[in-house]
Design goal:
Blueprint: E1 7-12, H1 16-26, E2 32-38, H2 41-51, E3 55-59, H3 67-77, E4 82-87, H4 91-99, E5 104-108, H5 114-132, E6 156-162, H6 166-176, E7 183-189, H7 196-204, E8 210-213, E9 224-227, E10 235-239, E11 242-246, H8 260-271, E12 276-279, H9 288-296, E13 300-304, H10 313-320, E14 326-328, H11 330-344
Parallel strand pairs: 1-2, 1-3, 3-4, 4-5, 6-7, 6-12, 7-9, 8-9, 12-13, 13-14
Antiparallel strand pairs: 10-11
Helix pairs in contact: 2-3, 6-11, 8-9, 9-10
Length: 345
């Protein structure tokens, strides 16, 4: 969805070179206008209050007022969607920034070749347009919850697919599932390969679920969450009475790696009528073909509603297939899955 008015962006980065580069990449689109730049968090806050940008791009490591303090102050004074620009060397910092309210992040390339810069430009423009659609009320929602510990029960497997806006949505969903750690979850979040392990480690500290980046040969177990590794696929197959995970390399036909479609199709093949897939916020149509496969196998597909999805692209495409049986706000998906798990048990 494109607005008739250009997206107004404020670039906050202590590097003059990075400010020039980001401005150039952003303004390569007629739908985006950089209304200002700032070299630290203090200046960034002043610019936000004066210029009222739609979106802020933020470097986390800055003098005087750093990225974390900027996010805290911005959230309390002028909630605005923030896209963090971070190097691969600071993966854990990204997820702390997401907990503090950042909308999404982009990995800063180590070697800015023309091809790499073109990929960065496309990702930057896609996420800036997506961030403009965020409702101000979404930016003030708390992310952390207090998990409740209960004994483990037999496993119930759910596959989750998400893209833009997904990391905080996945975290909120896991927190809502904490009363029922009999589940095992497979999560396909579109994310660069250098970040999926750090994402899993961040989620692992939340509560009763054990969260890790999936590896070839991992075995599904109750109370475990496996994150699809960036740059690979995540599939499940039956082997000697157990459900075992595979992480194959993508094929030429795969549009995404990891791919929600590939995960959902695998779920349909292995679990049949017991397959459950959930499509969360994200741009594009990944998950739509997989949703049809799960429905054909007799399983269930749910989608996040437009009311809470940061980007309604992926849920909308899944709904359009006719394969989705329930459309729910993010806050209702977890409790509904808990109820389903208990009924099936």
């Amino acid at each position: 969805m494109m607005s008739l008015e250009p997206v107004k962006v404020l670039v906050v980065d202590d590097s003059a070179h990075n400010r020039r580069l980001l401005t150039q990449l952003l303004e390569s689109s007629p739908d985006v206008k950089v209304v200002g730049t700032a070299c630290d968090g203090n200046e960034g806050l002043r610019q936000v209050l004066a210029l009222h940008p739609d979106v802020v791009t933020l470097d986390l490591e800055m003098p005087r007022l750093g990225g974390y303090s900027f996010l805290r102050l911005l959230k309390s004074t002028a909630p605005t969607p923030v896209i963090v620009i971070s190097s691969y060397a600071h993966k854990a910092d990204v997820f702390k920034a997401l907990e503090l309210g950042a909308f999404d992040f982009i990995a800063k390339p180590a070697k800015p070749t023309p091809d790499v810069l073109d990929k960065l430009r496309k990702e930057l423009l896609e996420k800036v347009h997506a961030a403009k659609l965020v409702r101000p009320s979404d930016l003030s929602k708390p992310v952390r919850g207090k998990p409740r510990m209960v004994p483990l029960e037999p496993s119930f497997v759910v596959a989750i697919g998400a893209s833009t806006g997904g990391p905080p949505a996945v975290q909120r969903l896991l927190e809502a599932l904490s009363p029922e750690p009999s589940m095992s979850l497979l999560v396909c979040q579109h994310m660069p390969k250098q970040f999926t392990r750090a994402f899993a480690e961040r989620l692992d500290r939340l509560g009763p679920f054990s969260v890790r980046e999936a590896e070839e040969g991992d075995v599904l177990a109750p109370g475990h969450v496996f994150i699809a590794p960036g740059g690979r696929q995540l599939v499940v197959y039956r082997q000697t009475g157990q459900y075992v995970l595979g992480t194959p390399h993508p094929t030429m036909q795969d549009k995404h790696a990891p791919s929600v479609d590939r995960l959902f199709m695998s779920m349909a093949e292995v679990f049949g009528s017991k397959a459950v897939g959930v499509v969360l916020t994200g741009m594009g149509a990944d998950g739509a073909l997989g949703a049809k496969a799960i429905q054909k196998a007799g399983g269930e597909v749910w989608a996040e509603s437009e009311r809470t999805a940061v980007i309604y692209g992926m849920p909308q495409e899944a709904v359009a297939t006719g394969a989705v049986s329930r459309v729910l706000p993010l806050g209702e998906i977890g409790p509904a899955l808990v109820e389903m798990a208990r009924k099936r048990r």
